[in-house]
Amino acid sequence: MSGKATAVGKALKKGVSKKGTRIHTKVHFYRPKTFKHSRKPKYQNKSVEKKSTLDKHAIIKYPLTTESSMKLIEDSNTLVFIVDIKSNKRQIKDAVRELYNIECEKVNTLITPRGLKKSYIRLSKDYDALDVANRVGVI
User: Fold this and answer.
1) How confident is the model at residue 46 (pLDDT cuts 50, 70, 90)?
2) For strand 78-83 and strand 60-63, is the pairing parallel, antiparallel, or unpaired?
3) How are beta strands 104-111 and 78-83 bridged, if at all?
4) What is the C-alpha separation between 59 and 85, in angstroms, rounded?
5) Angle of helix 129-136 relative to helix 67-76, nearest 10 degrees?
6) Alpha-helical regions (H) of the chain
7) Half-sphere CA count of 57, side-chain side, radius 13 A
8) CA 135, chain centre distance (Å)
9) What pTM did the predictor assign?
10) What is the distance between the alpha carbons of residues 117 and 65, in angstroms, rounded to a whole number?
11) H/E element holding 66?
C-alpha cells in the first residue's frame, strides 16, 4: 500500500506526461502564429513626401471645340474639356470652379481610344455655357 502511495505522490510532484498523437480536425496544416517584432526603422523610407503635380492648371488641358461639343454647349448647357488622365471627377469640378468661377451640376468623364480623358461638365442653371465658352475662348 505504501509503495502505491509514494508512486502517486512522485507522479503528482513531477507531473505526468501524456504522450500520444494529436487529433487533427482539419485536412490542411496551418503554420502556428509566432511572435513578430514591431518595426523600429533607423531612418524613413522617404525623406521628403512627394508633392502632388496635379494643380488646377495641370488638370484641365484644353477645351474641346468640335461640332458635337458646340451642340452640347448650345442645347444642354455643357462644356467639354480634355483633362489629365489621372484626375478624378472631384478634382475636375474643383479646377473648373477655381479657373472659370462657375458652379458645376455634374461631371461625366470618358477615356477616348486615343488615350485622352474627356470630361463633360454640366453647368448649373445659374450659368450659361455660351457665355462661359466665350470667356474661355471656345467660340
Assistant:
1) confident
2) antiparallel
3) unpaired
4) 8
5) 140
6) 2-14, 56-59, 67-76, 89-100, 129-136
7) 0
8) 35
9) 0.65
10) 15
11) none
**Closest residue by Cα to residue 103 from 75, 73, 69, 79:** 79
Q: Answer whether 78's CB lies under 8 Å from 123's CB.
A: yes
Q: Measured between alpha carbons, how far is 60 from 63 in angstroms, rounded to an integer?
A: 8
Q: What is the mean pLDDT of residues 79-99?
A: 95
Res 1: pLDDT = 62
Query: Which CA distances in Å does 117 have to 2, 57, 59, 92, 107?
Result: 94, 15, 10, 11, 12
**Residue 17 cell numbers, joined:** 506526461
The dihedral over CA atoms of 97, 100, 105, 106, expressed in degrees to the nearest 10, equals -80
Rg over CA atoms, the chain: 35
Q: In what order do the strands lie in the sheet with 104-111?
A: 60-63, 78-83, 117-123, 104-111
Contact 78, 122 (CB under 8 A): yes
Q: Name the grid cell of 13.
A: 510532484
- Residue 60, pLDDT score: 95
Q: Hey, is 48 helix, strand or coil?
A: coil
